[in-house]
Amino acid sequence: MIWNDRPAEPRNWPIADAMASDPAVDATWLAPDRTDYPAMRILITAAQIQKRLSEMAAVLAPAYRDRPLTIVGVLTGSVMFLADLVRRLDMPLRIGLIQASSYRGETTTSGELYVSPGLMPDVRDRHVLLLDDILDTGQTLKRLVQDLRDQGALSVKVCVLLQKKGRQIHHVEVELVGFEIPDEFVVGYGLDYNDEYRQLPYIAVLPAI
Ligand code: XMP
User: Fold this and answer.
1) Which of 5, 12, 96, 203 has its CA 20 to 30 A from that of 146?
2) Each residue of 182-197: pLDDT tens digit?
3) How far is the CA of 2 from the centre of ligand 1 (A)?
4) Model-level pTM?
């Protein structure tokens, strides 16, 4: 496909070299030539993520064997994590998605959470494994665990890819954590800044934003 709406620019994507030396990264995963990405520091490589997912699946599969399982991902950040993890779980399961967003309107308190009711999966008589990209203050997951319990789930357990150290204010019991990370703003593998960078196959720290 040839697009003529942007002049050709020389490749200058600082993380491309780091990715090319990562055996888990197929060259075709590289984003198209961009000059507008800031330099990023890779915190967790694609290979490290994929290896950890296999370990996590090995813990989860026996725990849910013979139980009616629904894996619920929190949009949008958990989509990569969900897709890669479920493909490692060789067992019957259902997938649901849930959307939660913080109100930022003038008439509501900042940080108040809105959960889209239309997207709430039917979890009655099901064991729920709630997946999120990152546990930060815990506000989102605490609320979602309660909502899913209220919907009649047999059990609700939480699994996160990342947990930020020293940030939790709201108590959430987390069953399984992929990686503990320092208190830095990260993007990639589902995590975004202004809805960008989600497609990166690794987790990186954005320079001061
Ligand atoms: P709470 O505070 O409710 O926050 O645990 C969870 C949500 O906050 C977002 N979040 C981040 N998103 N990089 C991101 O791209 C980060 O470093 C980060 N820290 C928190 C994220 O949406 C998560 O679900």
Assistant:
1) 203
2) 999 999 999 999 999 9
3) 36
4) 0.84
